[in-house]
Design brief:
260 residues, Rossmann fold, OB fold (Dihydrolipoamide Acetyltransferase, E2P), 15 strands, single chain, alpha/beta
């Protein structure tokens, strides 16, 4: 193998990104041309560097690995390998449609297998067409099967008991370091030790919207949306909570919610 593979890494968790980079740097046929800490940055870097391979964390905040693929036009699309903690629906969809994936914690030998397959696919004249079709089918299969197991209730452990909070009654979920603060319509707040991107993957995407890297809100709980200087928004919920949207998510709000 004389040709180096030009690789982009995208993972919102810095330790995971550093670990993957360290493994890749052990391979003589790999050149890392970009690192992204979120999906939006991954889209920009892929467009700019035109890599052979993008290693995308499946569940990144704001723009997921799947959404990165959707935001790229076919001529911009490199070969893709998704990185994920074990998710049976993702694994089934990827395996059935010949889309490569790596399970965390990533093993060096498994990554080597992925790189070897990339070399082989790049030698095929129609690799981009095949890759685009496989990804499209895998994303469709994943989205159709995974929605069947969305959370209906969130278990909240208190000192003496476990409460089951209906997802429909949740107004907002806000990250605070390793903790999540869950607030309901009555403005009662519960705290759990969980990652926002992991709980986001377990709730119906058409019921909640991400306002920033650290906040999800229930669409049914939004009372009003106020435009702020700089083009961002202040979202007021029915329980009186006010949550600011990030610049990126403000653009998504405009496109998906605020246009007829």
């Amino acid at each position: 193998m004389n040709t180096n593979l030009r690789v982009v890494i995208a993972d919102d968790e810095r330790p995971a990104r550093f670990f993957l980079k360290a493994i890749l740097e052990d391979f003589e046929d790999v050149e890392i041309v970009g690192e992204a800490e979120n999906g939006a940055e991954a889209v920009r870097i892929i467009k700019e560097t035109k890599p052979d391979l993008a290693l995308l964390d499946l569940q990144m905040p704001e723009v997921t690995g799947l959404e990165v693929v959707k935001l790229l036009r076919k001529p911009q699309l490199p070969l893709i390998a998704f990185i994920t903690a074990y998710d049976e629906f993702a694994v089934q969809a990827f395996e059935a449609n010949a889309v490569d994936y790596l399970l965390k914690p990533i093993e060096k030998s498994r990554l080597r297998e992925t790189l070897n397959r990339v070399h082989e696919r790049l030698e095929q004249t129609d690799f981009r067409e095949n890759e685009s079709l496989n990804l499209k089918n895998a994303i469709t299969a994943f989205e159709e099967t995974s929605h069947q197991n969305f959370l209906e209730r969130i278990p909240i452990r208190t000192k003496d008991e476990i409460l089951l909070i209906p997802v429909s009654e949740v107004a907002s979920i806000v990250a605070d370091g390793e903790l999540l603060h869950i607030t309901n319509l009555q403005n009662k707040r519960y705290t759990i030790n969980f990652r926002l991107k992991d709980i986001e993957a377990r709730i119906e995407p058409n019921k909640f919207v991400r306002l920033s890297r650290g906040a999800l809100v229930n669409l049914e709980m939004i009372a009003r949306i106020s435009l702020m200087p700089g083009g961002t928004y202040q979202v007021t919920l029915k329980n009186g909570q006010e949550i600011a949207s990030s610049r990126l998510q403000s653009r998504i709000l405009r496109e998906q919610l605020l246009k007829l």
